[in-house]
Each structure stands twice: as C-alpha cells, then as structure tokens.
Amino acid sequence: MPTPAISVAMSVYNGERFLAPAIESVLAQDFSDFEFLIVDDGSTDSSAQIIRSYAQQDTRIRPTLRENRGLVASLNEMIGSARAPIIARMDADDICQPQRFGKQIAFLAQHPDYGVVGTWTEDIGADGRPYHVTGKEHPETHEAFLTAIENGWPLLCHPAAMLRREVVLSVGGYHGAFRHCEDYDLWLRLASVTRLASIPERLLRYRHYDDQVSSRHATEQQVGAAVSYLAYRERCAGRPDPTASLERLPPIDALDALFGREGLAAEVRARVAPSLLYSRSGLGGEGFDLLCRYLREGGSREGMWRVVARLVRFGEPARAVRLAATLARG
Fold first, then answer.
1. Which of 179, 209, 239 is the last residue of a domain?
2. Residues 29 and 175 in one domain
3. Range of the domain at 154
4. What is the number of domains present in the chain?
5. Per the domain annotation, does 296 fall within a domain?
6. Would you say residue 15 lies in a domain?
7. Which InterPro entries match (predicted)?
8. Residues 190, 116: contact at Cβ < 8 Å?
9. Same domain, 242 and 171
10. CA gap 305, 324 in Å, rounded
C-alpha cells in the first residue's frame, strides 16, 4: 500500500458517548490522504463495536482492540506503528473541522523548522453547545510558546496537535511518569529540539464535561506538569534531567532529594495550589492536603475564605472547617 501522508492517532477507553461524531469528523476531512489508527484500550462499553463498524466502512481505519494499558502506552504504540511521517492526534470526544488536516500539513510543509503545529479550539460542552472558558489563546509562534512556558499559560491543545514522527521519536516519545500530563511534558522536551506553535484558527471543537480526564485527575495532572517544568529548567541549565528514566513520579516531598536541591517541593505546591481552587476534584483527595500544606508554608491567602464557602457548596463541610481552621491559625 502507498505510504499515507498522515497517520491519525486516536486512543479510546469507554468513549462510546462521543466516539461516532469524533470518528466521522476525521473521515470527513478535506485532506484525505491518511491512515486512521484507533486503539481501543480495553473498553468495557460499546466502543470496540463502534470502531469495528467504522473500520468495515472505511479501509483507512486500522483498528487495534486489546486489553487496557493506559493512554501513554497506546500513544507510543501508535507512533511506533505509524506508516506516515506526520502524526495527527485526535481524541474520542472532540470534533475536527473539515479543513483541519489540510491547513496543518500545509503549515508544516511551509515551515520545515517546526516539528509540531496545533490549532486554536472552539470550546463546547457535553451537549455540543458553546462552553465559556477564559485565559490565553495557544501561542502562534515558537517565541510566544517559550514565553507561555515561563508564565504558565496554555501551550498546545493535545488532540489538535500534528507532529513530525521522527522528532517525537528523537526525544523518546511520551513518558509514562507524566500520566495525565504526558502531552505537557512532551511539549517541554520538544521545545529544545524543534519549534512549536498553533494556527490561530479554531479547527477543533474541544469538548468539556465532568467525566473527562482533566476533571477527574486535576491534582495529579497539575503536580505532574509542575514537576515537568522543573525538569525543563534542569535541561535548559545544561543539567541532567532526573525524571528522564522514571516510570512513576515520586511523592512531592521527595522532589528535593530527586533534584538535589532544597525548596523544590514547596515550589511545586506553590505552583499547583492556585490551580485547584475552583475544581471540585482538585479540592478533593490529596489536592486538599496540598492546599493546606501550601498555606502552612506561607502561601498566599488571598481569596481563600471564598474557597471555604466553595467547599460547603461542594458538599465538603468537614474540609471547609479544616481550611477555615488553617486560615485562622495565621
């Protein structure tokens, strides 16, 4: 078979709710020279049946149906088996605009120094209606991308990314230690070997809903991103990256020993705590303990009494009392 121009990489785990429109949006692309790799990562719903049905209708789909191994393993598996020099990421709950692939591959053809190009997004809710978000747009140039890293602004929307396969392989693909923020870690590692940016057009409809990974694993995601930034600083300073060979990140309190410097654990808590204040899942579990520790270490108390009230609204009165006691102790 002729080598396709693009290999589309989609991993699915119990994605039946939004899977069909996601697949259809890929198959409807104006640029049609692609293979469509879909890994069903051990779903227990009807995802596998949906994938089989579409594979029977379109020979560009190369399905893999197997046991659960996790997103990082699925992504690396697809990158390893891809036949095209360009990888287009896609998630099972989003929707591509028809012109997405064509515009991105044209950008890469015109900018050989760029190894990754994303796009801006149209944010939608579970019902497909507009979903309001605030914050910076994804950076349009590599220079703006580097500025975004230092300011903690958005970098690239993972399911909107198109990547040169060889560049991703050159840095070892996705790292399993950074589960739930594997994309952020990859962007930071790629920033030292290639250029990254996004096309300022809304070529992906990005879906927000309560059960998505970024909602369910907010604390782990934010902690991993903060540690990834520490590793990025080490590499920029010419020092070895102590996370490079890890299969799992250590507890936050072990970071000083891992990096060989004091104060990094407290720095991670200070970086993560403000990002958890509006998240129900972020204020649950270890996220709440992280927040209290951050305050005991002298963190900013601005707006924290509103967080007490928010915990009450979230149905967490005991945690509201604990946070109020922490604040009262000064």
1. 209
2. yes
3. 6-209
4. 2
5. yes
6. yes
7. Glyco_trans_2-like (IPR001173), Glycosyltransf_2 (IPR050834), Nucleotide-diphossugar_trans (IPR029044)
8. yes
9. no
10. 7
Which amino acid is residue 303, in one-letter code?
Answer: G
Residue 277 identity (one-letter amino acid): L
| pLDDT tens per residue across span 255-309 | 999 999 999 999 999 999 999 998 888 898 899 999 999 999 999 999 999 999 9
- What would the two tokens of residue 202 be? 């809304």
DSSP 3-state of 213: helix
CA angle, 237 then 240 then 244, to 5°: 125
The 3-state DSSP class for residue 164 equals: strand
Task: Note whether 166 and 93 are same-domain residues.
Answer: yes
- Among residues 227, 225, 226, 219, the alpha carbon closest in space to that of 287 is found at 219
Q: Tens of pLDDT along 208-261?
A: 998 776 667 889 999 999 999 999 999 999 999 999 999 999 999 999 999 999
| Positions of E strands within the chain | 6-12, 34-41, 61-66, 86-89, 95-96, 114-124, 162-164, 195-207
Tokens 């609204």 identify what position? 313
Question: Which one of 189, 209, 229 terminates a domain?
Answer: 209
Is the dihedral angle over the CA atoms 109, 113, 116, 119 positive or is it negative?
negative
User: Measuring CA to CA, which residue among 24, 198, 27 is closest to residue 6?
Assistant: 27
Look at residue 1 and tell me if it is in a domain. no
Residue with tokens 């598996």: 77
- What does the block give as tokens for 141? 């140039």
Asked if 119 and 66 sit in the same domain, the reply is yes
Tokens of 238: 């010419």
Q: Are residues 73 and 203 in the same domain?
A: yes
Single pTM value for the model: 0.95
Q: Which of 91, 141, 136, 147 has the alpha carbon at shortest distance from 116? A: 141
- Is residue 291, in this structure, part of any structural domain at all? yes
Q: How far apart are the first and last CA of the chain?
A: 69
